[in-house]
Amino acid sequence: VQQSKxxxxxxxxxxxxxxxxxxxxxxxxxxxxDVLKELIRMGSKPQALENxxxxxxxxLVARGSCSTTLGLKWLGEDGSDSSxxxxxxxxxxxxxxxSHGNKEVFSCxxxxxxxxxxxxxxxxxxxxxxxLWRKEPPRQDSPIAGQHILEExxxxxxxxxxxxxxxxxxxxxxxxxxxxxxxxxxxxxVIVSNDHYRDLQNENPEWKWFIEQRLLMYSFVSNRxxxxxxxxxxxxxxxxxxxxxxxxxxxxxxxxxxxxxxxxYGNKCKFYHPERQHQAQLSVADELRAKxxxxxxxxxxxxxxxxxx
Length: 309
Known about the structure:
Elements: H1 2-12, H2 16-26, H3 32-41, H4 69-73, E1 89-92, H5 93-100, E2 106-107, H6 108-121, E3 126-131, E4 144-145, H7 148-155, E5 159-162, E6 164-167, E7 170-173, H8 176-187, E8 190-192, H9 198-203, H10 205-214, E9 215-216, E10 219-220, E11 225-226, H11 239-242, H12 284-307
Parallel strand pairs: 1-3, 1-8, 2-4, 3-5, 8-9
Antiparallel strand pairs: 6-7, 10-11
Helix pairs in contact: 1-2, 2-3, 5-6
GO molecular function, one term: hydrolase activity
GO cellular component, one term: cytoplasmic ribonucleoprotein granule
Keywords: Endonuclease, Hydrolase, Magnesium, Metal-binding, Nuclease, Zinc, Zinc-finger
């Protein structure tokens, strides 16, 4: 019985010395569950059996190294999964809600629309920051619409309340913008807001660059959350590249020249000429000039040779 237990735990990868110690303490009649609990309590860890390892087994690979898709999925965040190739999203809840409510009502529907838009694209890490006092019943000076949405998002671990408290009847609120920028900076994600955070840009030079490069602005068009297709301008990346960790460069699709071999633009032609792949793309005028210059240059050299003594 003792030998069978030894073989069983050796297959699990535990050392023989640790198994012998546990069996001596608990006795030969100890159950396998009790032996396993005692091994874990002692801090014994299974050792990798390199001799018995099969090449077909999936092995863990260090972060940043190349491996198969199966091996990468064991690493969690660094896997080749489509969801893991997307950047984390940090949403300024107050800014989004007030924008959807036309700066008059704190509309929680706007937050839900933004979260749903990023979920449809495949983003798994989405965090929304809202001050804690928004949990309180709405007042006339600060109306709230759809307050139950905040409770649902909190249960889904999407919404995070920034702390606030009352001191002698006055509300003390923590600066939620600092939470938003700090979490997005640490996660190397994207900030969703129409605020420029100029005070935080002056506070930290690293945050200044991050806010300039990772701020995603948006608009609401008929209850539709719409970020721009070019978040950093015309010459910047597309929206899909902006939201992904590994941007994909678009393939150049050349259009054939409609004039074909009769084209007279030469290298100035913006269209594709398959017959000019291995030829110098000169215009017809340049080719004629080059041909006329050759005989003239040869004639001048012959005249110089004749005149020379």
